Amino acid sequence: MNNVTVSAAWLSDHLGDAGLRIVDASWYMPAQNRNARAEFEQAHIPGAVFFDIDATSDGTSSLPHMLPDEATFAATAGALGIAENDRVVVYDGAGLFSAARAWWTFRVFGARDVVVLDGGLPAWREAGLPLEQGPASPVPARFDARLDREAVANYENVLDILQSGAAQVVDARAADRFTGATPEPRAGLKSGHMPGARNLPFNRLVTPEGTLAAPEAIRASFQGAGVDLSRPVVTSCGSGVTAAVLSLALAQIGKEDVRLYDGSWTEWGGKAGAPVVTGEP
Length: 281
Fold this sequence. Notes:
Pfam families: Rhodanese (PF00581)
CATH class of the largest domain: Alpha Beta
Number of helices: 10
Order of helices and strands: EHEHEHEHEHEHEHEHEHEH
Radius of gyration: 18 Å
Low-confidence stretches: none
Number of strands: 10
Helix content: 25-40%
Domain Rhodanese: 16-133, 163-277
InterPro entries: Rhodanese-like_dom, Rhodanese-like_dom_sf, Thiosulphate_STrfase_CS, TST/MPST-like
Subcellular location: Cytoplasm
CATH topology of the largest domain: Oxidized Rhodanese, domain 1
Organism: Faunimonas pinastri
CATH architecture of the largest domain: 3-Layer(aba) Sandwich
Largest sheet: 5 strands, parallel
Shape: globular
Number of domains: 2
Mean pLDDT: 97
């Protein structure tokens, strides 16, 4: 087992440590009508900086929050005062949601020590720990970004995997979206799932308190979804955010042969000719 999370108590004890960087990576679905940056400026963990998932993305893509190039990520991380050898603690305002995407993004660009605050800002508040207001003023740093392309899957990779059976695709969307019983929230996307994909809604890996499930529960959830943990996995979701919760959970149980499909269903469900099926897997 790897420890991919830290507790609010641990972070409180280590505030001010040299080389520790705290990142608020809150992001919300448009229907939630929440402004993550404004909420950060109203209240954040002392010393935190705000990482904007949408602003730090590939501006040339029509797909949401796709990974940027190395230079863009390096500039963003450096401007936030983060170097690749810092210890980075990521959190969000939901408990465990978008922080996993930021955890994966920092790791895939070469950050060596990234963890998620278990329970996020709600856990910090629940513990009665201090908060700051206002925008962050980090001291710029240099981040040497090197994209791990083996950790990222694209459309062609996933199509090949589905045809060859070389890996298992695990979809983090809600069951009714996966089966096609409910329309996709994004207009213009087909309903259903990729042929052969398995479904494990990400919230089954998150406790009611917003913390990551225990390792034995993680294993049971994946196995219950029909996933063979001895074989490679590609995680997917609606747009690449909650797929990272699955990736985080797999990292917690020590599984390394995992890729994330960056375009996820927004790409697959909107692409002409992409095979789609409905119903139970």
